[in-house]
Amino acid sequence: MTVTMTTPTPAAAPAGKSIASLLGGGSPGSARRLADSGLWDRQRQFYQQQAQTLWGTAMVPHGITGNPRIAATYARLVVEFLRSVPAGSGRPHLVEFGAGSGRFAFLLVRALRALAPGLDFTYVATDFCADRVAGWAAHPSFHPLVDQGLIDFAVLDADRPGPLELLASGRTLDAGSLDGPVVGIANYVFDTLRHDSYAVCGGELHECRVTLPDLPPGAPASALGELTWDLADGPVVPPELSGVLQFYADTLDDTAVLVPTGGLRCLDFVSELTTGATCMLVADKGHCRPVELCSQPAPSVVPHGNGFSLMVNFDLLARVVRERGGVAVLPREPARSLVVAAFVRAGRDGGLDDPERFTAWVQDQLVDTGPDNYFTVRSLLGGGAAADLDTMLAGLRLSRFEPGLLIELLPRLLDVLPTTPDATRGEVERSLLQLWDNWFPIGEPIDMALCLGLAFSAMDRFARAVDFLELSVKEHPDSAPAAFAMGVARRGLRDLRAAREWAQRAVTLEPGFGQARVLRAVLDEELDTPLDSSLVTPLDTPLVTGRGR
Ligand SMILES: C[S@@+](CC[C@H](N)C(=O)[O-])C[C@H]1O[C@@H](n2cnc3c(N)ncnc32)[C@H](O)[C@@H]1O
């Protein structure tokens, strides 16, 4: 999407129209305040229409914010925040905005429970899209957490944040409902919510208005083509932003500056919920320092499918929070893909016991194993063709057992597992079970149960393999690889008749499946001439893995 910016002259307002009339709306195609422009209707439609199917596609990036590594880091940040502020009388609540697939909520609740087993808390996953929220409530992976009272779900529209009607418990959370600390979480959400835009030009502040090309409603965001930005004099600046915008006018070069108005509303919503202290954890791509805000020719609007995202102005968020007496923690080191920041506000009984210590602690976590570092080095954990088992296990541990990493490592793992010494097999087994525990399906075309079944078969743990393969064949009844893997595992258990049926099923489903044919032939022989099981030669590794067809 290319963007043009016109020169800042009073003529930017169409002849005969006052700036005030532009602010009030006008016909499509006219320049509007960014926060009032039709861009946000498109955004809402995009996220509404694809409620259940969006996350199985690569349209909206979510891997960096939906893995066990980021959940483990957030769990530590949450526990440290709760340790550092007055406990209040109620249990802590966590409220996630725009929780998307729900995968992060699932992982964080489990990471928190593991890190602080005695901590009583309620996690509320929210989104503005009611179908998405209903989808989480129906997701089987959430049911045990709901039964334990650890998680609940609510519709929350950041454009009009109102009371949270919790689906599972039936409770309502409104302004002042809570007395304990509250943690807000917004991953890849502030960049999606409403923004305003201003421009600094020759040390003067202007409002930056946008004109959309005239497009049919369903046109993809990339078809927006050229947005036109016009500058208007006499900008309307909300009082709470006047200090920071004046600072920008005084210090920045000629540049466009974004104001995350939707994000600021989320910060307010969280602190209004409780009389206790609050901490908002925000992860997004964005700008942290004034120098990063310089020389932006126009706001950068990046299309994702039919939606879009903007760079989040973390510098502004931090200044606003500090002006109000809060503590803003930005990362110490530059982030390549994802800035994670913490914004803390004190409650009635006080705030952080030691703000400097908390700041240093959060920054240290982010430098150590923060999501940005993890995302950047993750490709190195993929193993490669010659990786040994110890390296792969270390990578899985470092990822906090990310199922996606197992998929990348699986081909090499299946090579080395058959010769793994017994002493190590127990460790591999524990790792595989942790990977399975972290699996939260969101509609990706991945058969995780098959991956686990293959890995257990490769270690001759056939009973375990069958447990997983039962899930695989139930979920994917037309999968020839799953049927074949079940044949191999059943044969490993010396259940030759069942193995023969599964081999036959694999051939029926995929007549050209050579290894399934070989397995069937081997089983025919074994069924004709039953042997002492201890004398039966195990099938070759390729048959076990089901690869190389
Ligand atoms: C880019 S996705 C991020 C999803 C998830 N947090 C993640 O990291 O993968 C943006 C999310 O914000 C939600 N959203 C969009 N507009 C919203 C609004 N006005 N209020 C609340 N949520 C909104 C979308 O439905 C979507 O779930």
From TrEMBL:
Origin superkingdom: Bacteria
Lineage, opening ranks: Bacteria, Bacillati, Actinomycetota, Actinomycetes, Nakamurellales
Annotated InterPro entries: NDUFAF7_sf (IPR038375), SAM-dependent_MTases_sf (IPR029063), TPR-like_helical_dom_sf (IPR011990)
Source organism: Nakamurella multipartita (strain ATCC 700099 / DSM 44233 / CIP 104796 / JCM 9543 / NBRC 105858 / Y-104) (Microsphaera multipartita)
Protein name: Uncharacterized protein
